[in-house]
Amino acid sequence: MRFLRRSLVGLFLVALTVGLLAFAGNSVVSAIQARLSQEPMQRPARERVFAVNVLTLQPQTIAPVLTAFGEVRSRRTLEVRARAGGTVVALHPAFEEGGHVQQGDLILRVDPVDAQSALDVARADLAEAEADQRDAARTLDLAREELAATAEQARLRRQAVSRQENLRSRGVGTDAAVETAALAASAADQAVVSRRQSVAQAEAAVETMRTNLDRARIALAEAERALADTELYAAFSGTLSDVSLVEGGLVSPNERVADLIDASALEVSFRVSTAQYSHLLDAAGTLGAAPVTAVLDVYGADLVARGRISRESGAVAEGQVGRLLFAELHDTVGFRPGDFVTVRVDEPALTDVARLPAAAVNAAGDVLVLAADDRLEAAAVEILRRQGDDVIVRAPALYGREVVAERSPLLGAGIKVRPLRPDAAVAPDEPEMVQLTPERRAALIAFVEGNPMMPKEAKARVKAQLEQEQVPARMVERIEGRMGG
Fold first, then answer.
1. Residues sharing a CB contact under 8 Å with residue 420, sequence separation 6 or more, in sequence order
2. Fewest CB atoms within 10 A around its CB: which of 27, 151, 181, 471?
3. CATH class label, 266-346
4. Is the CATH number of domain 114-226 1.10.287.620?
5. 80-109+230-259 architecture in CATH?
6. Using one digit for the tens of pLDDT, what is the confidence trace for 54-102?
């Protein structure tokens, strides 16, 4: 009985457990179905507000600056060529690479012995020709006097003929006497003709001697010029370059021995695009003399020269585009022909324009303007110039309104923003300065002094800054970058 009772109790407990588990499973399934059938509760979405930098668009007058790159060149460059061939017997003390000569200085002299001998012979020939001319002139004078005497004699013979004919007509003279007088007159006339031929020959001899004299004078002038060609003088003050001659060397006529460069008359040639070129034209379509600044990068102590545009190339070279412009430079201390410089050209001023960061304008020329309730709206502007990180625009309808300074893909028309306005009291950043250790300072100065490509004026300027207690960090970084440090 006990076994039966325990078995029934166990069976009851098992049935109760199974029932409870079935009830629990049904409750879970019912709860899941009820949860899935319910509509989700949605919280109201909050509008996202972006913080943006804004600035006020104000009209002003701006002179755009056109930036290009060019090469410094000399407006006066002369090829020094030997006009006579031979042995070089004298050279200027500064006849070397980089030597400086003054206008009128004797640059070189070729052995003048042969030219001097030719000059002496030409002078002797001239003296001989002058003597021959004088002799021919005297011969002509004598021939003319003989002609006059012969003509007078012929006149007297003709008078004698007339007298004998008169006597014969009166019965006093004879025919033989008349015939004799006529023969004498005919002989006198023949003598006159002979003397005329002598005068003509004397005149021809005078003309020949005059021609010989002119030839002798030409030969003398050529000999003097040949002697002068043995000496070469500087046409202007300048610096010698590409020197290829030493004293005692042989030169041939018209051989190029050096170049003479006027380092005080420098200009810069630079190329601009056709669009940039159009910005430099005036109302008449003429290229104006716009101010130009040439900057030579020298380890932070940049050399600066100013000038004005002087001319433009007459044609576009094959394979090139744009326009090639030339500008005269002034105060070119430290500049040399061949320097690669940065050229900044001041364009004519633009009125009623504004300057914006380049990030404020998209590719379509639209900006985002702050409207009512701090919401954005899109507006179009006319882009006139792009200069580095800025653009110059014209938008009269937007002047006085606030524009987003930096656009991003998250910003667009209708978006609410939190404007961040610049503080006008913020001062511009001062250039960063560093203090050098003695070893570092000495290494920088040694590198600058040992640089052969650096002008003396630039070396002095850089050394003066390096010797200061505080040195611009930008200069130090540039020098060490070229040192490889």
1. 51, 52, 53, 54
2. 27
3. mainly beta
4. yes
5. Beta Barrel (2.40)
6. 999 989 998 888 999 999 998 888 888 888 888 888 888 888 888 889 9
